Structure formats: C-alpha cells, structure tokens
Amino acid sequence: MNERKRVIIGTAGHIDHGKTMLVKALTGIDTDRLKEEKERGITIDIGFADLMVDHMQLAFIDVPGHERFVKNMLAGVHGVDLVMLVVAADESIMPQTREHFDICRLLEVQRGLVAITKIDLVEDELVDLVEEEVREYVRGSFLEGAPIVRVSSRTGAGLDQLKAALVQQADLIHTKKTDALPRLPVDRVFSIKGFGTIITGTLTSGILREGQTVDILPSRRRATIRGLQVHRGSVQTAQAGERVAANLSAVSVDQVTRGDVIVPAGRFEPTSLIDARLDLLPTAPRPLRTRTRVRLHLGTAEILARVVLLDAHVLMPGQTGFVQFRLESPTFAVPDDRFIIRQYSPCLTIGGGCVVDGLATKHPPFHPEHARSQALIQSLRRLTSGCQMERIQVWVESAGRRGISYESLAARSGLTDALLTEALSSLVQAQHLIEVVGQTRYYIATAVYDQLRSALQQMLAEYHQAHPLSEGMPREEVRSRLISGQRDEFSVALFGRLLQEPVFDAERDVVRLRTHQVSLSPQEAQQREQLLTAIQQAGYQALTLDEVAQRTGVNPTVARQLLQPALNQGRLIRLGDLLFDADVINHLKATIRAHKAISNKLDVAAFKQITGVSRKYAIPLLEYLDRQGVTRRIGQERVIL
C-alpha cells in the first residue's frame, strides 16, 4: 500500500463567492467556527477542514474574502501547496479575486485550479463568459492551463469533477523536504481543559516529535511538545506539509500568539532586520521610497516595518529591488521565506518577495557612488542566486576579521547540522574558509586570514629591523595591534591559529619571524655578559635595569635590548622593577624548603634573617614564593608548603 500523501489546499477569492460553502460541500465541515461568522454569514478568520480521497489526504485552509480581513487570509495562505481560486458565476472576477491572486503569485504558489461557483444561479451562456474571462485573467500565471471546474455547492453539480481535479493537481505537488529543521508558524492558539495550551499551524519544514523541547520565537520562551495531532489523529511525529496541532507544556495560552514560530530549542534567533528581494506589483498605486512604512506579512505574522532601499533611490511599480526591512517588533525568518507587503494605510497589497538574510546587519541607504553600496549589492545578488555553500561563504566574508561562529551560521542558514557541517567542510577543503577552533568553531574567509598573516609578517619584519637585538615583539602588543585590541574568544583563538603558521615562532611572551636571529657584535656580547654577571653577583640584593646599566656603564636602552632575550628564556626573573638571576631564585626556593625541617612557619623577620635582605627585597620575594606555591600566606605569617 502506498504511503498517504498530504497536501495543503488554500482557498482564494472575493467575499460571498462561496469559498466556505464549497469547502463544506467537499468535506462536510463548516470552517466558520466563530459566533460572529455565523451571525454575519461571512468568514472572518481562517478555518480548517480535511478530506480523504483515495491515497490523498487533502487539508483545506479556508480564508476570508472581505478586504478588511486580508491579513487573516495571509496568515492562512503562507503554507499552502496549491490554491483553489473561487470565482462566482454571477459576479465573475472582483477586487478581492485580484488581490488574493496577486498574493498567491507573490508567494510563488506553484499549482492550483479555478472553481466557478454558483452555476445554478445563472444561464450557461453567462458561465461560458465567466470562464473565458478567467482564462484570460490567469494567462501567463501559474494557473494558465490549470483545470477550471464549474460547480454548485447547493445542488452538488461538479463536486466529483472538482475532487478529481484537486487530486490530479495534488499528485503533481512535490513532497516538502523533511531534512530541514522544523518550523511551525502559529496560526491559532487556544486551550483545552486538562490539556492546557494548544497551537495549530502548517509545518513548513522538517519533523516535529512528541517530547521535543522547542523555542517560541520571537519571545524565546521554551516549551515541550506534550502531544501532537495531524488531521485530528494523535501522532508521535509530524512532517513538513502537514497541518499540525501541538499541545505545549510550560507556557500559558496568553504567552503564545498568531505570528509566533515553533522551532528547535537553542537553534534560532529572532530578528529586527531582514534583507530581502522585493517585487513591487505593477498595480501598486505609487512608487516605493526609502523609509516608507509598510505592513510586512511573513509566515503567519503581521509586523509594521520601514523599508530601506538598497540598490535604488526609488522603486517603481512593476520593478524588483533589494530592500532592508527595519521591523518595529521582532520576528523570525530564514533565507527563501516568502513574504507580502501591504500599504500601511489604506491597507492594500503592493508587493512581495523572498528573504535573503533573516539576521541582517543595518545598512546605510543606497548611494550609487559609494563602494560600500556596490559591495552590498554584489553580496545580496550572490545570496539570492547562489547555492547554500555560496551563501555561507558570503556570510563568512561579510564578517571580515570578526569571523563568524558555527552557531551563528546555523541560525542564519536554517540548515541541519549534517548539511551545514558538510558545506563548511567542503569550503574549508576548497580553501575558501579557514576554521578557527576555540570553545566553539569559528570561520574566517581565507582571503581575510591571508591578509592578517601578511600583516603580521610585515609587522614583525619592521620590528626586527627597528630592534635587531630583541628576540621578538611582545606577544600582547602583537595581538592588540593586529586584531584591533579585541580580546574576545574568537580573536584569541584566531591569534593562536596564526602563530601556528610555519613562518612564525612564539616563545613565552614574544613573537618573531622564524628566520630572525639575534646577532651580537663582540662589543655587544661583552656588554651582555657584564650585565648578566652584575645581576648574578647582586644575589638577593637585586638591581633595577637602570642600576645595572649604571654599574656596568652600558646605555640603558642597549641594556634593555641585551637583557630581553634572557628574560624571555627565563634566565632572568623580573619582580616589579627588580631583576633576579634565575639560579639565585632557584637557590632561594631550595633554602626555604630546607628551612621547613626547622619550622614550617615563616614570617618577614625570619625570611630577612635567612636571606640577609632588607624589607625592600623581602616583600617581593615572599610574594613571588607565594605565587610559585613554595609558601602560602596566612595572616601575617606564611606556611612553607
């Protein structure tokens, strides 16, 4: 037996053209559930019904036809597989017929049919005229050549032919992919005594499972799926393309609303900035300009937003352009999500398109002479036309020296871990990206990484030329200058990755080019030995750099350069301004440990007696021994460990 195919069918059409009555005639279900709908005799909110025909499970989403309730229609039509455009034989094509059909085209619904209703109310000749008008109207659209079925919900005429046509069209629908992460836009929220909060929606991608922990975006509330139903039957898993009811625990009914999206826990982020490609309808009443306030319909959500044009100063009716939506309240989106925009007032559908980047950064308005605008347009084109790997590469390149984490790429792309890891591995193998491993994985464009490596080489070469007697440049100075003073996890990990390159050597606190060697003249070698001997002879009575330079007659600047390698190598130990010979310090450690045989207690007076030093030297030496774990301070005394 073949697996049952599930298809979502959305109605569309003008008010009072018989959409709800037709769904009831097909399924036996009245989708008008609200008291007000029954009293007024019009559909106000979306309703749901289903029908089993052969191997096909057809789920109907019935939408309101009144112009005042188009926003409700948009909440229902976003996830449909095919549309049933309803045109009444006694009125033909009307304003909401046109607006609903524009919406279906903008959302890129791929298949559908036309039902001409109320044929029992008019003569056959008039039905012929309406059918001809419909054929002309849909020419050049996805409904060109689609079935046009004449039907009467009152007499039942044509219902069998309509069911057959629906099954025929549904057979042509490609099953939605379940290898993507699950996303369930919420279109209805209610509660049932004994169960709690119930949400419904069309699962647009992936698989949801009973017991799964989920996030509710954009609020970020966390919940667990206590139970799932598909077509009023309990299931353990729900798949993309199905109408789903989910019983959520840990949230109350007033904490979820239409427009929210149920997603896997900890995976996605809400957004207030969306980059998109926008098609402005030829019927739009006026050009679109930057900062225009619009109503953005995305999934089941309606959000007020300002439009910023990114590749033009003005978008004329019938034109396509890149825009950024700056939202007045957050939402959730991933690339390729379809959307509709309507005028703020009066409410009228003026365009739609697809999301290019659901976690965009703020862009300045378009300036054709600015290189930044040109680079942005090029990136948006690549994001629009490229494959998933191309998109990932663009996002990493756009991050520049900041890099981007695996988690950020996962939230931005909407890909599963398997697909994302595969894409990243291919890009790293092809040498387009560099992987930088810290507490998490980060990625940086190879071109940017190469620039940093070249900059580091140049920086060290200049330093070696200016300081030929120095073994290398202080590590922290290198990192700060190279990565603009940042010290976040990524910059630290990136710096460590750069230092692993074979052209560099890093020892203790210095970094140098591997080819660099300190070459001392005979005079400099003699001066260095004089300096080291003076420090060694000073013993515990340590000298400062200026004091040892004065004692040996070596210029202080030259002395600093000559002694730095010994500090880097650990031959000398600096405590504040004092320089100690490492052998002297090691002898001190041995002396203190030997004193433990006499007493394991040590105060400043006893230390001064053992070493013969004044308090000036005793305090820094004792603090050093504490840090080295030789002693531990307890009050005014120390314990020898």
Write up this protein:
- The protein has 641 residues and is α+β, with helices and mostly antiparallel strands.
- The chain is 35% helix and 29% strand.
- It contains 19 helices and 36 strands.
- Strands 7, 8, 9, 11, 12, 13, 15 and 16 form an eight-stranded antiparallel beta sheet that branches. Strands 2-3-1-4-5-6 form a six-stranded mixed beta sheet, with helices on both faces. A six-stranded antiparallel barrel has the order 17-22-20-19-23-24.
- A hairpin with a 2-residue loop joins strand 29 and strand 30.
- It is elongated.
- The chain starts with a strand and ends with a strand.
- 41% of the residues are buried.
> What is the count of DSSP helices, taking H or I runs of 4+ residues?
19
Taking Cα atoms only, what radius of gyration do you get, to the nearest Å? Answer: 37 Å
Strand content: 25-35%
Average pLDDT score: 89
The largest sheet, given as strand count, sense and whether it forms a barrel, is: 8 strands, antiparallel
- Report the helical percentage: 25-40%
Low-confidence stretches: none
Distance separating the two termini? 79 Å
Give the overall shape. Answer: elongated
From the helix content, strand content and strand pairing, which structural class follows? Answer: alpha+beta
Can you count the beta strands?
Answer: 36
